[in-house]
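Here is one chain, start to finish.
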Amino acid sequence: MTVQMTLRAGLAAAALMIPSGAFAQPADATKPGESQVETAATPADADTVVATVNGIDVTLGHMVMIRRGLPQQYDQLPPDVLFQGILDQLVQQIVLEQSWQGDLPREVELALDNERSGRVANAALNKYLESAITEEQIKAAYDEKYASGSGEMEYKARHILVETEEEAKALIQELDNGADFAALAREKSTGPSGPNGGDLGWFGPGMMVKPFEDAAVALEAGSYTKEPVETQFGWHVILLEETRAKAAPNLNEVRGEIEQELQRDAVQAHIDGLVENAEIDRGGAEGIDPTLLTKADILE
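Its structure:
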C-alpha cells in the first residue's frame, strides 16, 4: 500500500509515492546526523519549527497538513509513531526535492500551478461564505418555501387486497350495492391491514408502490376505485378517505438544506460577478482540437 503526500506550496515540491511501511519504524529511531524528536508536550503552533533540512524549515503546520490528507486507516497508529512517520516523510521529500538538478518537468510546473490556484480559489470561496449567508436570509428562505406547508399532500386510505381481478371486480360490485368498505376488508382482504378494515393510515408521495399511489391520489376524498388496481402484491380496491397538506418541517430540521441552497446560489452569483468584471480573452482557444486534452505527450 502506498500513500501520496504533497509538501507545502511554498516549495517547488513533487508529489511522491512513499511506502506506508515508512510509518512502521519505532518512534525513537534516529539516523546519522539527526537529532531525536522531542516527544514531551511543549507549547507549539503552526509556525513551530520541528526540523530543518539543509536550511529548509519543517513546521508543525506542514505536518498537520500531511496528517489531514492521510487515509482513515492511519487513525489506528499511535500518535508518536504517526508523528515520527510524517516527519520522516517530509524530510525525505525535501532531500529528494533538493536533489533535483535543472529545470522542473513541464508537467510538474503545471501541476503546481493548478494545485496552488485550486487551493487559493477554495480558500477565497470559504472566506466569502463566512459572511455570505445571514440568519435573516435563512429565515426568509424558510418562510418562502414553507409558507403554505411542505408543498406535499398526504393521503389517508383503506384497501382490500385479493388474488384475482375477478374477485376485485366482485368487491367493487358489492360496494356499488352499498356494502361497507371496512367490513368487506375485514372479511375478504388477504393483506395484513385486513383485520383493521384495510386501514393504511396516512402516507405521502413515494411511500406506496406506484400503481397503488397513482390510483389513490387520482380519487376524490370519500370515493373508491371503480376498476381493480394491480400491483406485485395482487389486486386492490382502494378507498381514499381524506387528504391534507403535509405540515411544514421545523426550521432546524431543514436548516442545513436551506443553507446549502443559499450557499450554492450565492457562490454562483459571486463567481458570475467576478467573471463578468474580469478582463478575459478566450481567443486562444479558438481552433484548438478538443481531443488534444487526451494527448499526454503534449506535456513533454
